[in-house]
Every structure is written in C-alpha cells, then in structure tokens.
Amino acid sequence: MLALSLLLCAAAGVNAVLDGKVETVRISDKEFICATDCTFRGAFLGQSGRICTEPKAIVRLDKDGKVDDEWYGTAFECPGEVQFDGHTTRERSGGETPLDCLVEKMNDPDFFRCTSSKGGDRRKVVDWADIEKELKLKTAEKKKRTQGGRNKCGKAAQEVYSECTRTGESQECEEKSRAFMESCLDGE
C-alpha cells in the first residue's frame, strides 16, 4: 500500500498544481498546442489532460499485452493513469518516443480551443510558463534529495524485497524492489 501511495505521489508531478485537466497550452499570444500525447520542450502532454516530464512517459498495452494505440491514436501516457479492461503499461523500449506537439497559430488570443475528442469533459487552457515553472520546481526538488532520503528509500525497498520473497520468486521481487526504490526517490 505504501508503494502504491509513493508511486501515485511521484506520478502526480505537474498535475497536482494543474489539476490534470490540461487540454490547451498557450505558448504565447500567437501560438498554442493541444495536449495530444505529444512532447514539447521536455514535457509530455497527455491526451487525458495529464502532464509529466517526457522521460517519464510510458507505453499503454491492451489486455492482450499489445501496444494500445486505438483509443487515442498513440500508446503513450503519464504514469498513474487509471487502466481499464485489463489494460497495463510498461516502460518504453527500442527507441519508442512520443511525437512532438504541433504548434498551432492562434487567430484570436481570446478565443481558441483544441478540438480533440475529450468526450465533453471541460478542460482548461494553461500557459506554458506555468507548466515550465512546475517542471523546473520538480527538477530542483529532485536535485535536493539528501543521503538520509536515499537511505530511507533503500531500507523501505529492502522491506518490499523481504516481504515479496516470502511468496514470490527472487527475480520478480528484485524487480519490485527496484521499481519501489525508483518511485520512492522520485517522490523525494
């Protein structure tokens, strides 16, 4: 339960401040981008409205374990998305990368909107400067990790490994422990 809690906190990132409902990102008075599972200046902008750093974007798999790009047209998302009908995720491999966001011109700075399919859910327009600020804050916080925090995460990861080996296989437990350690440090 602690591991899930830490993972969700780490995945929250920029979304905590931006409410995870970003649809349109205003770059300037003349340009904007739509959050369409794409990257822009180091950020991944998910179609679901969530934002994470580009390296954190993961691959969504369907219930058969195949890359799932039918729903949104891409298979990428930020960690922490709710999965339905047996869908899962995995880390990217083999050079898999999301596409770059298409920068669009705005005719009227007071009236512009992305027309991507959101199922009627009202999402908001966010200034790129706000996203960039949050990404920089998250990066700065990550750099401030103390050795004490690493030791705390290491001890907790050892507990995860020990608990797992009571019922699971060593290799599987090692992977769980490593994943826990990474998510713990990301949450620092």
UniProtKB/TrEMBL annotation:
Keywords recorded for this protein, A-Z: Signal
Organism annotation: Beauveria asiatica
Record's signal peptide: 1-16
Annotated protein name in UniProt: Uncharacterized protein
Domain of life (superkingdom): Eukaryota
